[in-house]
């Protein structure tokens, strides 16, 4: 009898414990629901903000434009410089986890083939309209190396052409020269137009400078191999944007195929415009701006907010 009473007492205590636990669970759930109803959206909005804007090298024109955008749009967010490779690595890691990220972006670039991305609208026009990439050569190059001058003057391709080289380097694990040579082999008709009627040379030396953006790595390696086809020995030198312009303007470098105009490199162009020869665009339809994955549910620079 005593044992039966103890058993009943134990059952009652256990039931009370379960009721208390259940109430606690409901209370917690209620708090979460209340949070969802009252503050959950605010929390969610905070989580969907950005840590910072992920940039590239500090001297790039797109970084200057982004500093201007932060000021003109009144954004309370930091621009963090890195490099082209570090920017795309951060972008890939964020996309893998569906995290919010905003980066300085430009096209042509292989990341648009690899990921679903979008440019944020720029109603104030800070980043300008479409750009062209120009070929600039040092003064005197036409007289001293007329064959190189002619090839560089003839050099022109499309964003799709450039993208093929970039994708092979970035996604297909090809070396820069390997990817460039593949494109040349597959587009012999285009290359033959660049070198048509050009007099071959015998081991004359040239130096090309370029910024280490994926786009400029592609174009510089392609044109270097084409110049080597007609007998030049070409040295490729990666530098920062300001050094690239200064090198061609001073004559220390012979040429570059990496001047983004009229916006991205406008300041450098104006500083040195009397000291080099502009052969005009080698690619049209380029663009710069701020880029996010398509799952990020904002559409304009005005909507950027800190996490």
From TrEMBL:
Q: Which domain of life is it from?
A: Bacteria
Q: What positions does the domain ABC-type glycine betaine transport system substrate-binding occupy?
A: 51-185, 206-304
Which segments does the entry list as coiled coil?
Answer: none
Keyword presence, Lyase: no
Quote the InterPro entries the UniProt record gives: ABC_Gly_betaine_transp_sub-bd
Q: What does the UniProt entry say about where the protein is found?
A: Cell membrane
Pfam families on file: OpuAC
Chief location of this protein within or outside the cell: membrane
**Key word Signal present in the record?**
yes
What keywords appear on the UniProt entry?
A: Cell membrane, Membrane, Signal, Transport
Give the range the annotation lists for the signal sequence.
1-21
Q: What is the protein's name according to its record? A: Glycine betaine/proline transport system substrate-binding protein
Starting at the broadest rank, the lineage of the source organism is: Bacteria, Bacillati, Bacillota, Bacilli, Bacillales
């Amino acid at each position: 009898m005593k044992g039966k009473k103890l058993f009943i007492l134990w059952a009652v205590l256990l039931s009370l414990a379960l009721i208390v636990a259940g109430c606690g669970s409901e209370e917690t759930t209620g708090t979460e629901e209340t949070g969802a109803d009252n503050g959950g959206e605010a929390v969610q909005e905070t989580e969907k903000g950005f840590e910072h804007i992920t940039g590239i090298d500090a001297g790039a024109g797109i970084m200057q434009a982004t500093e201007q955008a932060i000021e003109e749009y009144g954004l309370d967010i930091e621009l963090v410089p890195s490099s082209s490779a570090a920017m795309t690595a951060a972008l890939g890691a964020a996309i893998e986890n569906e995290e919010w990220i905003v980066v300085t972006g430009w096209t042509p670039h292989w990341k648009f083939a690899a990921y679903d991305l979008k440019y944020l609208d720029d109603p104030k026009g800070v980043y300008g309209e479409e750009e062209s990439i120009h070929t600039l050569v040092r003064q005197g190059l036409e007289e001293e190396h007329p064959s190189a001058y002619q090839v560089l003057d003839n050099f022109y391709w499309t964003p799709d052409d450039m993208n093929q080289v970039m994708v092979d380097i970035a996604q297909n694990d090809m070396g820069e020269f390997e990817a460039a040579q593949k494109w040349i082999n597959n587009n012999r008709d285009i290359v033959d137009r660049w070198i048509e009627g050009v007099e071959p040379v015998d081991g004359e030396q040239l130096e090309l400078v370029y910024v280490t953006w994926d786009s400029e790595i592609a174009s510089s390696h392609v044109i270097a191999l084409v110049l080597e086809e007609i007998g030049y020995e070409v040295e490729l030198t990666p530098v920062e944007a300001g050094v690239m312009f200064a090198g061609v303007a001073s004559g220390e470098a012979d040429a570059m195929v990496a001047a983004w105009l009229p916006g991205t490199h406008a300041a450098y162009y104006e500083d040195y415009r009397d000291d080099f020869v502009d052969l005009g665009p080698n690619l049209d339809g380029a663009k710069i701006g701020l880029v996010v994955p398509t799952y990020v549910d904002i559409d304009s620079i005005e909507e950027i907010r800190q996490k």
